[in-house]
Automatic annotation (TrEMBL):
Lineage: Bacteria, Pseudomonadati, Pseudomonadota, Alphaproteobacteria, Hyphomicrobiales
Subcellular location: Cell inner membrane
Pfam families: ABC_tran (PF00005), TOBE_2 (PF08402)
Topology term for the membrane: Peripheral membrane protein
Chief location: membrane
Protein name: ABC transporter ATP-binding protein
GO cellular component: ATP-binding cassette (ABC) transporter complex
MF term (GO), any: ATP binding
Similarity section: Belongs to the ABC transporter superfamily.
Superkingdom of the organism of origin: Bacteria
Residues annotated as domain ABC transporter: 16-246
Keyword terms: ATP-binding, Nucleotide-binding, Transport
Organism, scientific name: Bosea thiooxidans
Length: 367
């Protein structure tokens, strides 16, 4: 049943290409040579901290902002010169922007009436869109009589009812409480899959992007830092910013020294970690590893190359794992060990040796 309903609103999926975009507000250079190739049917995220330019880029695709240079292509056609209403994109705003005096069904119908869609067709699409988001029974209510999650679904229904080729979502979950957010993000993913609609999702929340998106562009200060699947970004971050923004990263400062035995990364406190022969380690490179890739053993044994001596500073119980804070020289590092009921734990003050397999070490530039 759902599949039949969805099919009536499906457009064939299109690509979105962003080429050489620069945009400034006065002296503020907000988007800096942005290039992205978003594939047909992809659920794509713009992820980055507040002020990095995500919304500006999304509004540019929608036609609400003009670039200084570059162009936007939808399905291979340059749409840069088209006004918003001729672009075949639908945008869901953070605030939902529903009309409070209209019923849910009238809100969904509004955009179709404006476009001069025939009455019978409007009725068909309103029914299909409300079915799609599971609200067909609430068409007669006003937005104020709905929960936040339901209002969000009305905003999505209203947008997909106009059958856009591209769906743009600007932090659509930010007004929901934590539990609703998890539920609605699954619904959004499910809806996007059923419609096969190319979708771009703006968020500053890495968990949100990781759980629902196929690929993510990580942005900082108007620059795309890296594009990849959530797993690629986590396992092979291109720089320190990406490593820090997606998950917890341990970062060690140091400098490369060479002797008869090869190259070493000398960190504060005297420990030396061997630098792999193929690693490119210009000045400023940091040594990075994830908390779950490290091991801890009680100190006493002679430290081998690649091992760091330190002391436990504290521990946090995370359920499936125990996170230990380990002080090494002037740095505080995190190590996650699987939690096993009844197993001996390290205590604050314990002297430990921290080991990381060479394959889990990342040699990263700052940006
Ligand atoms: N209409 C505008 N006029 C002038 N400056 C603007 C305008 N809109 C955004 N900016 C500036 O452009 C930069 C990027 O803003 P943008 O809203 O795109 O960031 P964002 O990554 O979406 O942040 P947030 O997550 O807080 O929404 C910021 O420095 C912001 O102050």
């Amino acid at each position: 049943m759902t599949v039949t309903v969805a099919a009536t609103l499906t457009a064939s999926a299109v690509s979105v290409d962003i080429e050489g975009i620069n945009l400034s507000y006065g002296d503020n250079h907000v988007l800096k040579d942005v290039n992205l190739a978003i594939r047909p049917g992809e659920f794509f995220a713009f992820l980055g901290p507040s002020g990095c330019g995500k919304t500006t880029l999304l509004r540019l695709i929608a036609g609400f902002n003009q670039a200084d240079t570059g162009r936007v292509l939808i399905g291979g056609s340059d749409i840069s010169a088209l006004p918003p209403w001729k672009r075949d994109v639908g945008m869901v705003f953070q605030s939902y922007a529903l009309w409070p005096h209209m019923t849910v069904a009238a809100n969904v119908a509004f955009g179709l009436e404006e476009r001069g869609v025939p009455k019978a067709e409007i009725a068909r699409r309103v029914t299909a869109a409300l079915n799609l988001v599971g609200l067909s029974h609430l068409g007669g209510r006003r937005p104020s009589q709905l929960s936040g999650g339901q209002q969000q679904r009305v905003a999505v229904a209203r947008t997909v009812a106009v059958e856009p080729k591209v769906l743009l979502l600007d932090e659509p979950l930010s007004n929901l409480d934590a539990k609703m957010r998890v539920q609605v993000r699954r619904e959004l993913r499910d809806l996007q899959q059923r419609l096969g609609l190319t979708t771009i999702f703006v968020t500053h929340d890495q968990e949100e992007a990781n759980t629902i998106c196929d690929r993510i562009a990580v942005m900082n200060d108007g620059i795309v830092q890296q594009v990849g699947t959530p797993m690629e970004l986590y396992e092979r971050p291109a720089n320190l910013f990406v490593a820090n923004f997606l998950g917890t990263a341990n970062i060690l400062d140091g400098s490369v020294v060479a002797d008869g035995d090869g190259r070493w990364f000398a960190v504060e406190g005297g420990a030396r970690v061997p630098v792999p022969a193929d690693a490119v380690v210009p000045p400023g490179t940091k040594l990075v590893f994830r908390p779950q890739h490290a091991s801890l053993t009680r100190a006493g044994a002679v430290a081998e190359a690649g091992q760091l001596q330190g002391a436990i500073s504290h521990r946090e119980f995370l359920g499936a794992s125990m996170r230990y804070g380990v002080r090494i020289g002037g740095s505080e590092l995190s190590v996650d060990l699987p939690f096993q009921s009844g197993a001996a734990l390290f205590e604050a003050g314990d002297a430990v040796t921290l080991g990381v397999p060479p394959s889990a070490l990342l040699w990263l530039p700052a940006a």
